[in-house]
Amino acid sequence: MHIEIICTGDEVLTGKIVNTNFAYMSQKLEDAGLTVKWETTVGDDREDLLSAFLRAGERADAVIVNGGLGPTVDDLSQEVAAQAAGVELVLHEEWLERMRSFFTRRGRTMSENNVKQAMLPEGAEFVDNPVGTACGFAITIGKARFYFTPGVPRELRRMLENEILPRLLAVSGTQTVIRLKRFHSYGLGESHVDSLLKGVEALAPDGSVKLGFRAHYPQLETKLTVRGADEADIKAKLAPVEAEIHRRIGNYIMAEDDDTLEGVVLDHLSRAQGSLAVVETFTGGQIAARVAPLPGAEAVFRRGIVARHFDEIAAALGMTGAPAFDTEPPTAEFAEQVARAARVQTGATHALAVMVAIEDGEDRIDLGGTVCIAVATADDVASRRSRLAGGRDWVRLGAAEMGLDSLRRYLQDLPIREPNDFEKVDKL
Amino acid sequence: MHIEIICTGDEVLTGKIVNTNFAYMSQKLEDAGLTVKWETTVGDDREDLLSAFLRAGERADAVIVNGGLGPTVDDLSQEVAAQAAGVELVLHEEWLERMRSFFTRRGRTMSENNVKQAMLPEGAEFVDNPVGTACGFAITIGKARFYFTPGVPRELRRMLENEILPRLLAVSGTQTVIRLKRFHSYGLGESHVDSLLKGVEALAPDGSVKLGFRAHYPQLETKLTVRGADEADIKAKLAPVEAEIHRRIGNYIMAEDDDTLEGVVLDHLSRAQGSLAVVETFTGGQIAARVAPLPGAEAVFRRGIVARHFDEIAAALGMTGAPAFDTEPPTAEFAEQVARAARVQTGATHALAVMVAIEDGEDRIDLGGTVCIAVATADDVASRRSRLAGGRDWVRLGAAEMGLDSLRRYLQDLPIREPNDFEKVDKL
């Protein structure tokens, strides 16, 4: 099935806003086994919209149009859709009524402008928007079925997932259920994981499992798209592949599906009624900022301490007799002392120390830093020492990830020191 | 001039990466007074690329193509460009030589794959890429001049700004110099600033100054696009408008052009040989994380303290005789006590305390929080108390911004308490 997407609106065309709606839609379709072949962005311009609709209608089987369903004069999608389909706009009474009660429930009066949002091309199929006033619809232009969706991301997401995707899957003749399974890992690069996972797809019959990746440094997302007759079939097909992935890269998997590294760490500590202190230097509070604001963290996150100098860290923690910390790169032993002292001072069950010495000089692609990480509990401590490079931002992002992931590994009884593709060992 | 942009690559088309290159290019052109009329994204597919090139060549005067200049087999831009222009690919000896020395300087050997990157359509104009191996070029297809650019953002930016933009401006017949002046503000919404600045454009002659906005919560960017004969002319035209903008919304302007709020705060403290302690609750370390990792912050950022409970803050700062902090929303006085205590404990010249009590319950759009902010020095303290709403993330982002901006206002001798459009006063 040839699918196209048309994005509309001056704000997107002029780059005033980055077009995340497109990436979201395309990815969502991809995850469901559908592929977008062509994307067009045009502004709020009658002629360009018409031309884009007609051209897509010549080429595609299905087209998703995003935006232009609002109440203002520059929202032209319904009007141009009607023109392209050669029909008139007619009032959709039911939607007008829905909008009126939408406003009434919020204690507001509907503006007459909004009536425009209930005008649909004659013969259009109504597509529900339960969370906004922009009414979706479907209509045929040329040889393609067009689906019109709102520009507001929250409304688009709901409509795409609940209304458009099921229709597209029905039209595409895909009688199967599709599920996306995701693994979030840190420490192995995309091509490395790709080679480590060679052949896992073959563990499921008939090519029903497809492997893919999405890298966003420092994390890597490994994705399995699974097709089956129903949920039970999917589960059965997924099980051997999932088990094999865990066998091959399990220690590196921090979280799955919608879970996050910080969420997994918080969950572990919550379940154990634990508490956490975090001590940071060059990461500047970024590690604390990932955990502390989460719902439920108020019962776990005890204290965060940030300083740019090791002697200031020592002062904050009342560490006496410490060496002149700023003269040398930090050691794993120093990180251990810091973590122990933070645990004692705050009374937390766990303390994480991430001590970074960033190299001097202008920021550049090979600028690096030494990262020493320690996790301490009442009667134990574990640590690692690494060198990261790639410029100030990459060292900072990498150190925060490695720090939080070391804590995750500690909490899951995994070694906190394992080979890491982002680690530079040459200069240690 | 009718300008189009064609983005290429499976990673962009499938939504695996969000297309920030397009927004960047379009915005950059817009800022230079040029407008993109149409954007197309196609994958690494010979037929689609050819079709996209030929269609754009029929409609446009100028086309920027992004991506597909790499060394691998799925990088097809040069090849399809040659086909669309009806010419052969020929080796660009000079670029091959440049690539070889590029690799040699990095102690690596050039792979034979890279030779492909020196193959340009016959007759193409060479467009320099001083920071990568993807060679840019320009060629005419149909009635349009096509400019081919690399997909790597850093390489694209350099090439667009130094090579493509000057060529486009020359072709467009714009004999004028164009400059973009930007003001970053916090506390006033876009429509409010728009109404406050009504008429400022008229202070410059001939419509040579154009006003625009870009909102990214919690900040607002106000932009002036200025056209003039030369730099002196631009300066003269800009001066009265700039002065008037400062007169009308000056206190709310945190930074200008490429400066940032955190950079301005750091700069003020650096110049005064000052130092900073930051105490945070629900913002979780986010305020510290904006300042502490900056170049130069090692001499200014003294210490950050994060906790989710006010009594833990009190414990960390050795504040005795404090009330039962967690039973009530915080007061401005409590924030003042915290800031004073942090200053004394750390010996910093300035301490910022941002105490937030977030409401209980499920996250929702009207969830709010009480925010108490104080800035203390050795012999002074200033504070404000506000209510922010919009859900957990908005309260967190707003509190961090308001906190850091209060410090900026204090350092610039401005009132830290001024009307704020994001503040909800009804529930205080």
UniProtKB/TrEMBL annotation, chains A, B:
Question: Which superkingdom does the taxonomy of this entry point to?
Answer: Bacteria
A Pfam family this protein belongs to? MoCF_biosynth
Q: What residue stretches are annotated with the MoaB/Mog domain?
A: 4-171
InterPro entries (UniProt xref): CinA (IPR050101), CinA-like_C (IPR036653), CinA_C (IPR008136), CinA_KH (IPR041424), Competence-induced_CinA (IPR008135), MoaB/Mog-like_dom_sf (IPR036425), MoaB/Mog_dom (IPR001453)
Similarity comment: family membership: Belongs to the CinA family.
Q: Which PANTHER family match?
A: NICOTINAMIDE-NUCLEOTIDE AMIDOHYDROLASE PNCC, NMN AMIDOHYDROLASE-LIKE PROTEIN YFAY
State the protein's name: CinA-like protein
Q: Which organism is it from?
A: Candidatus Entotheonella gemina
